[in-house]
Amino acid sequence: MKTKTIELEAIGVIKTPWKTPDNMPIQPTGAKGIKGIIEVFPKFSDGLKGVDGFSHIMLIYQLHLVENTKLEVIPFMDNTPKGIFATRSPKRPNKIGVSIVEIEKLEGNKIHILDVDMMNNSPLLDIKPYFEDFDNRTGTKKGWLTNKQDIDKYHFKSDKRFI
Question: CA 12 to CA 146: how far, in whole Å?
């Protein structure tokens, strides 16, 4: 099967306090209350109509500073190598990140958000509303994370595995 090149156009940029991956949050849980701003490019701003009616949105963005990929990594909360697709490591073949963030307010083409765990100037590929009735699943399998208890004890900041 021939690999097809896919071209995506950024719809905006995500502004955050994180200029380098050193000690930045690696999940929105580790970024509680940290503010950021999504700047949607003017030609896409009409697409924001109705977004302010949601409390949370899903952001799909490019992990633009990731330089290399790995098919096996030692993930956060473990010390045994796992396949990249069984983790949320940024060292992914397609360098795509997904985060659920809280909307603080919408001003024109800017969405002020909370719980930012992405790098400053990350190219924004898409925004989707988070709808609890559709997106919140219960009774799911947790894979290798099944026996991880007391999640609050974990340090939710990046380390050398993510750089």
Answer: 36
DSSP 3-state of 146: coil
**To which H or E segment does residue 62 belong?**
strand 56-62
Q: Judge whether 104 and 114 are in contact, CB under 8 Å.
A: yes
Can you give the pTM of this predicted structure? 0.82
User: Nearest to residue 93, comparing CAs of 2, 6, 1?
Assistant: 6
**In Å, how far from its chain's centre is CA 83?**
19
Q: What is the CA radius of gyration of the chain?
A: 16
- With tokens 């590929």, the residue in question is 125
Is there a domain that residue 76 lies in? yes
CATH of the domain at 83: 2.40.30.70
> Is the separation of the CB atoms in 112 and 37 below 8 Å?
yes
Segment 86-137, tens digit of pLDDT: 888 888 999 999 999 999 999 999 999 999 989 999 999 999 999 877 766 6
Answer yes or no: are the C-beta atoms of 91 and 66 closer than 8 Å. yes
Domain count, the chain: 1
Contact 126, 98 (CB under 8 A): no
